[in-house]
């Protein structure tokens, strides 16, 4: 392997699942394994055979996947003290998993040897060497994880190095140094890895780091710069406590910033897609502020920043967002100037003239509404309606006459029922509809649709996907203003609308009404173009 080429080892399916709230079914794990393989990951650690039925089922099923590059690894520990490796049932289960690679961990820190394993330093060295040799003789590629290596090295460098040499004698192809507690500083990692590489030779060392000090990515990178050739981590930094080192940040830093190579380089534009895919299967909201792949990673809010980034992207962007599958975004707020609004409109497919009176009025309207609690950063559909009104390209599809919402519980054991009444005027005709639902917003949405769908059947296509409420000025207690963000999908795209006010029902009404108006306006504009 070239000294500039790094191997990427993913442990999302094993170490990542130790994170709080992270759980994958067997089907999930198989889909993620396929996705990691397509991305070009070199090693995929699938789990610990024997620790749970799910991992064993995964190893049985993964044999049927047609992986193009990645090697599947089973994870386990060295043999127990006082028995032969060939008699250890856990090592036998590792072989039964049938994976081409086995990763085992052993103790590097004398504290763990004497106080946790309750054995001698000499027996621990034998456990490491015997276990690696047993697996190698069975035809497996063995990666050795030196658990708590940095703590062990700082406590007793000589013994920590002896544990690595024992694994090397047994035939381990890589000696991965684990910062298991996640507490080692960057300068310490740099020095220790360099000393280890000098001792065991180049091309042998890997990194396995945790994020307890917020340094998981940093110490992984400095470990590579100090001579390591393999880096372990998880997608999106999932893992126990504060998580493992985040491969989604490590990989682009290695390839785009530090000049290293990896098999996954051609797939780097799919990095954001990979991150979102795994978040979706983990049933987690994506981190909007994640480096490289977050939706806010290349978002510009201040007018000066947005204007400069539009003229010369690299003036405010450290890389081209497309390199990692992301894009530049302009955010609209009361900080926005003319250039920001023009750029945002252009991003949405609308051309605004920089010196037009309509633009000036639009900016003033945005600032007025944001002062009242509105926010348009995640409400592009509401913003497009504002543009249409400013340009006098918006027509009133329906006139609002009034609504009423009643929340009622008809007995101590009866469920809460909400009833909404809506009055609209469409084409001169008054439409008066009533609907019930368990919640007031659901009832209001139903009644609104009952009034509109007979006239505008295309509204049957849209579904309410998400509903968020944010309390503003919480010191006002029950009288605080609220902001409601609604996300709606119509089978083609997802769009956001916003409402704000002192009454949560009224704020919700504004957001719901905007969603339906936007759908009608957009369909009308598309039909006119065709």
Care to give the gist of this entry?
With 530 residues, the chain is of the alpha/beta class. The protein is built from 17 helices and 16 strands. The protein folds into three domains: 7-281, Aldolase class I (TIM Barrel), CATH 3.20.20.70; 299-371, no CATH class; 398-455.
How does the SSE layout of this entry go?
Elements: E1 7-10, H1 26-39, E2 43-47, H2 53-62, E3 71-77, H3 89-96, E4 101-107, H4 110-115, H5 121-137, E5 141-147, H6 149-155, H7 157-170, E6 174-179, H8 186-200, E7 205-209, H9 216-225, E8 230-233, H10 247-257, H11 271-281, E9 299-300, H12 303-311, E10 329-330, H13 338-347, H14 357-371, H15 380-390, E11 399-409, E12 416-426, E13 429-437, H16 440-452, E14 463-472, E15 481-489, E16 494-501, H17 504-529
Parallel strand pairs: 1-2, 1-8, 2-3, 3-4, 4-5, 5-6, 6-7, 7-8, 9-10
Antiparallel strand pairs: 11-12, 12-13, 14-15, 15-16
Helix pairs in contact: 1-2, 1-11, 5-7, 6-7, 8-9, 9-10, 12-13, 15-17, 16-17
